[in-house]
Specification:
By secondary structure, the chain is mostly beta strands. It folds into 2 domains: 134 residues, Immunoglobulin-like (Sandwich); 222 residues, no CATH class. It has 3 helices and 23 strands. It has a 6-stranded mixed sheet. It has a 5-stranded mixed sheet with strand order 5-4-3-9-14, with no helix packed on it. The chain has a 5-stranded antiparallel sheet with strand order 7-8-15-11-12, with no helix packed on it. The termini are close together. The N terminus is likely disordered.
């Protein structure tokens, strides 16, 4: 468990780049072979008319909520690794969590990436691949997508896999765990397809892919390999927060985007900025939205007893398996106490109701006796599993 203790130091902001655009919807990863003979790749959405982004500009967010079939309003991206040995390619132990951008219908707000090519017939040569995973017996204008590399989150080993399902049996196209898998996926030019993108733990995952095809006739005149394009998957609330605040390059550097980093030098580490609603780039102690902010300590008297009271916003745990944890602590002499604390939560008032989907108000109280203490201190420690 990593723990960060709240401290406040004012400093000048450093200059950072903009964060990524979250693709929390249906998105096509569109490959095209363009004149004068180069591949292009864009992330294309269609919820508000077709909008295309370059792949370094976007992230693909997945939640840490459980997947609930047939209930998209409440469904997330977290599955449980099946007992079947056919799923060993994921690198996840049976019964352990596995996060998937699904081939079928996802939960609302989950990324749903697929591959697409909208070029006219005749752009590519048609052939039957020798890859036995391609079950087509009719020649088609195949585009081959190859895995060029994978960067997992720092820390515990993790894996990426790509597969399609028909019935209960997976057809494995890519796996960083199973070295026997040839990491190529085929789809036909002029078509659109979805598959399962699997990840073995939360965090920032970068999947690097490239495309190739044949101009024809048949399996002749290869296009050559495209440039490598990186797809950034942000799994879980903290990773999603990282992806919306840091650039693709910054996400490669834990000294900038990691939970213990303080890139804007304002005295608050990233995990603390995440925990209380601050911008890790601003360099000022101002929350991003009214109602968020640092804990406030007060002393109140009720029925002849004095209480030290901490009020603060907290991110809702929901159905996460490893939510952010808040630990209120009190002291009169800087020897911190955690006994006797009562904590209650409530929604934000109507004028701040938009916060309630993610945040809640927390009030933690500790009795200190019938006489008001001469001094008192309070703090909230935050911790997260990484």
């Amino acid at each position: 468990m990593k723990t960060t203790i709240l401290t406040l130091i004012f400093a000048t902001a450093s200059q950072l780049h903009a964060g990524l655009i979250p693709m929390a919807e249906h998105v096509d990863i569109r490959w095209r072979w363009e004149t004068p003979g180069v591949w292009t790749c864009q992330a294309v959405t269609d919820s508000n008319g077709e909008v295309a982004h370059e792949t370094p500009e976007v992230s693909f967010p997945l939640s840490d909520k459980p997947y609930i079939a047939g209930n998209p309003a409440n469904s997330g991206a977290r599955f449980t690794q099946p007992a079947s040995a056919a799923f060993a390619f994921t690198g996840v132990l049976v019964g352990q969590p596995l996060w998937i951008a699904v081939q079928s219908t996802p939960g609302i707000g989950e990324s749903w990436p697929g591959l697409e090519n909208n070029q006219n017939a005749g752009t590519f040569g048609s052939y039957i691949p020798s890859d036995l995973r391609v079950s087509q017996t009719t020649a088609r204008p195949w585009i081959k997508i190859s895995l060029d590399g994978y960067t997992p989150p720092p820390g515990t080993a993790s894996h990426f896999s790509l597969w399609t399902t028909s019935g209960s049996t997976p057809k494995v196209w890519m796996s960083t765990y199973d070295t026997g898998v040839v990491n190529d996926y085929y789809y036909a030019g002029g078509t659109h397809t979805h598959m399962n993108w699997g990840f073995s733990r939360p965090g920032i995952h970068k999947v690097r892919i490239k495309a190739s095809a044949f101009i024809g006739p048949g399996q002749t005149n290869p296009t050559g390999l495209s440039a490598v394009h990186t797809l950034t998957f942000a799994i879980g609330p903290f990773a999603q927060w990282q992806a919306t605040h840091f650039s693709a390059n910054e996400l490669d550097d834990p000294a900038i985007c990691g939970p213990e980093a303080d890139p804007d030098q304002d005295g608050m580490k990233n995990l603390v900025e995440f925990a209380f609603g601050f911008d890790p780039r601003s360099g000022v102690i101002t929350p991003e939205l009214p109602g968020l902010g640092l804990p406030k300590l007060s002393l109140v008297e009720e029925g002849g007893t004095f209480y030290q009271v901490l009020e603060y916003p907290a991110r809702r745990t929901g159905a996460q398996i490893a939510p952010l944890l808040y630990h209120p602590q009190y002291s009169s002499d800087l020897l911190w106490q955690t006994d006797g604390i009562t904590t209650t939560t409530s929604d934000f008032p109507l004028e701040m109701a938009a916060l309630n989907a993610v945040w809640e108000k927390v009030l933690s109280r500790r009795p200190v006796g019938s006489i008001a203490p001469a001094r008192g201190f309070g703090r909230v420690q935050v911790s997260s599993f990484e």
